[in-house]
Amino acid sequence: MKNFHSHTTFSDGQNTAEEMIEEAIKQGVKTLAITDHHKWPDGFSNEAMDFYNDENHSHLMLLKKRYAGKINLLVGVELDWFKDFKDKLVEQANRRHYDHKIISVHKLKIEDKYEPIDYTPEYFDSIVERAGGIEKLVRMYYSEMRKAVRLGLFNAVGHLDLIKIYNKGSRLFSDKEDWYRQEVMKTLEVISIQRGLAVEINTSGFRKTCGEQYPADWIIEEAKKMRIPLILSTDAHHKDHIAFRLKEMEEKIK
User: Which helix (H) or strand (E) holds 33?
Assistant: First the structure.
């Protein structure tokens, strides 16, 4: 088993790097990428100002050597796209050595404020209203993802269809609608021309309101047709999720 997305107390995880690694070994995970969130741009928010500092990174590099022979530890990072801070993102992506770099979109700029799309269902609904409706919000999400991907700096796209997080039972939109599928397909096309860029099959969606992996089965099949590499991840923020449904998902990447 391989898990290419996990977090520790160096950002918003609940367990130390050592605890996550030891649990991965116990669960039979052969490759583990620790991909803590990077520090957000100065002046943007205090929420993530202490995330993943240089000392944390150096510690992970030492753990990589310490656990060699027991597990293939990848020292990675999950990078967030903020359209007004592209230069800062490039700086963060290049300033240290990383074995695995994930690009994700967690926040969208609505009016003059960056809003989280994965906070609560009620908050999401308020964002939908302020954005002018769900179709506009979804189109904005995939548009921003394409802009990020075009930078060409990353190894994997994180939770590609995260925008569906509160759409269980097609509460807000149907992923069979033409406009939605067109947005996804345009995004896959941009991903496909980035050499080696993978889409992760992220099992954390099973722990969220949507109740399924990211991305949806039909997106996985379209990615296969385009020969986009697929990798597995649990987006673990707790050691109990280090191997969460990985074996089940292995069938999807064959």
Answer: strand 31-34
